[in-house]
Amino acid sequence: MKTTSVMIVGVGGQGSLLASKLLGRLLVDEGYDVKVSEVHGMSQRGGSVVTYVRFGEKVYSPIVTDGEADVIIAFEKLEAARYARYLKADGKIVVNTQQIDPMPVIIGAAEYPVNVLSELTAKGVDVDALDALSLAEQAGSSKAVNIVLMGKAAKQFDIPYDRWITAIENTVAPKFIEMNKKAFDLGYHA
């Protein structure tokens, strides 16, 4: 069984830690050897963050290197572009179309790149984009973007829908379970 490499990338405060915990728990429950890295980057709101999740029969390291990621789950467009070099030639980026301006853009030292996703597609990157923020709000909270994206990304894994729902029930705080199940469903069917 080959080792599968996943990167979860975004901006601090978007819930990448919960997304990686959910994926890690699901994969352990499915019987895989799983390695999940700590969040790397500025975990305070606004900084770029990345978490690695690797799974297979036996995994020795959680770190994903250039050209090794099977799936990148990007919580923001610019983060998809920033980490695209890690994607395998036949990999896929599942990305939220939301734009969150990084500090250089906020202070006027840079401009947010135009056409980020179409440029990735033009380079041959398989991009699966959706407006996860709107779907999260439809589910009940803008903070559920992470779970909407996990729903969309779920189709990249050979794991039944109901197992994902069980993992949500076992990972999310009880008062947020129903909202997160709805967010996952909206992403899954988007």
Task: Based on the model shown, name its key terms.
seven-stranded mixed sheet, alpha/beta, Pyruvate-ferredoxin Oxidoreductase, domain 3, 190 residues, globular
Describe the structure.
The model has no long low-confidence stretch (mean pLDDT 93). Strands 1, 2, 3, 4, 5, 6 and 7 form a 7-stranded mixed sheet that branches. The longest helix has 14 residues, at 16-29. The chain is 38% helix and 23% strand. The protein has helices at 16-29, 77-83, 103-106, 116-122, 132-139, 145-153, 161-171, 177-188; strands at residues 4-11, 33-36, 40-41, 48-56, 69-74, 87-96, 126-130. It has 190 residues and is an alpha/beta fold. Helix 2 (77-83) links the parallel strand 5 (69-74) and strand 6. The protein has a single domain (4-188), classed as Pyruvate-ferredoxin Oxidoreductase, domain 3. The protein starts with a strand and ends with a helix. The protein is built from 8 helices and 7 strands, in the order βαββββαβααβαααα.
How much helical structure, as a percent, in the residues? 25-40%
Computed structural class = alpha/beta
| Total number of strands | 7
How far apart the termini lie comes to 30 Å
State the shape.
Answer: globular
What's the architecture, going by CATH? Answer: 3-Layer(aba) Sandwich
From the 3D structure, determine the CATH topology: Pyruvate-ferredoxin Oxidoreductase, domain 3
Number of helices: 8
CATH H-tier superfamily = Pyruvate-ferredoxin oxidoreductase, PFOR, domain III
Number of domains: 1
Low-confidence runs (pLDDT<50, min 5 residues)?
Answer: none
The string of secondary-structure elements, in order, is EHEEEEHEHHEHHHH
| Average pLDDT metric | 93
Whole-angstrom Rg: 16 Å
How would a crystallographer describe the biggest sheet? 7 strands, mixed
Strand fraction equals 15-25%
Which CATH class applies here? Alpha Beta
